[in-house]
From TrEMBL:
<keyword id="KW-0238">DNA-binding</keyword>
<dbReference type="Pfam" id="PF00072">
    <property type="entry name" value="Response_reg"/>
</dbReference>
<dbReference type="InterPro" id="IPR036388">
    <property type="entry name" value="WH-like_DNA-bd_sf"/>
</dbReference>
<dbReference type="InterPro" id="IPR000792">
    <property type="entry name" value="Tscrpt_reg_LuxR_C"/>
</dbReference>
<dbReference type="Pfam" id="PF00196">
    <property type="entry name" value="GerE"/>
</dbReference>
<protein>
    <submittedName>
        <fullName>Response regulator transcription factor</fullName>
    </submittedName>
</protein>
<dbReference type="InterPro" id="IPR016032">
    <property type="entry name" value="Sig_transdc_resp-reg_C-effctor"/>
</dbReference>
<dbReference type="InterPro" id="IPR039420">
    <property type="entry name" value="WalR-like"/>
</dbReference>
<keyword id="KW-0597">Phosphoprotein</keyword>
<feature type="modified residue" description="4-aspartylphosphate">
    <location>
        <position position="54"/>
    </location>
</feature>
<dbReference type="InterPro" id="IPR001789">
    <property type="entry name" value="Sig_transdc_resp-reg_receiver"/>
</dbReference>
<feature type="domain" description="Response regulatory">
    <location>
        <begin position="3"/>
        <end position="119"/>
    </location>
</feature>
<feature type="domain" description="HTH luxR-type">
    <location>
        <begin position="133"/>
        <end position="198"/>
    </location>
</feature>
<dbReference type="InterPro" id="IPR011006">
    <property type="entry name" value="CheY-like_superfamily"/>
</dbReference>
Amino acid sequence: MITVVLADDEALLRKALAALLPMDGGITVLAEAEDGEEAVAATLRHRPDVLVIDLEMPGTDGLGAVSAVRRELPEQAVLMLTRHARPGVLRKALKLGVQGFVSKSAEPGHIATVIGALHEGKRWIDPDVSALAVIDDCPLTDREIDVLRETRDGYSAADTAARLHLAEGTVRNYLSNAMQKTQTRTRHEAARYAREHDWL
């Protein structure tokens, strides 16, 4: 029996997976989480064989949650569900030790198969996810993306600097660069532009 924690802010998808994954008898869902912080707490509490987590969630996103989990449980197997896999995100996730990437549109049976593969110590990146990640038209650096993501979530430059452990002037430089590259007038416009192009 393979145990999993399911983390996704889309309740419908999460509930469907929680109902469908155990149907073949080989998977038990120990807990569900609707955001990154809940995902970290549930994973540390239940210590599942595989953490199945959405990349994009409010507050602490999938990468942030995996980073926090890995500090406590360095061997935790992680399957990341994603709609958009930018190369920068894929690189970061692989650096964090994420073993699997599956499209959120995948059949539950396929997701169950990948969970089994990860439990056996294998890696798995769906072809459509890796194909998306190879097509990189994003001119922004990973750090510029980080500060735009914080801006999108409503944080000021000072808050962003504190959250990312950077100097406020450095954050302003990143924002200025991002605004130039996206040809926008404000950091909020730059964040919106980047979001619309699936760069965040």
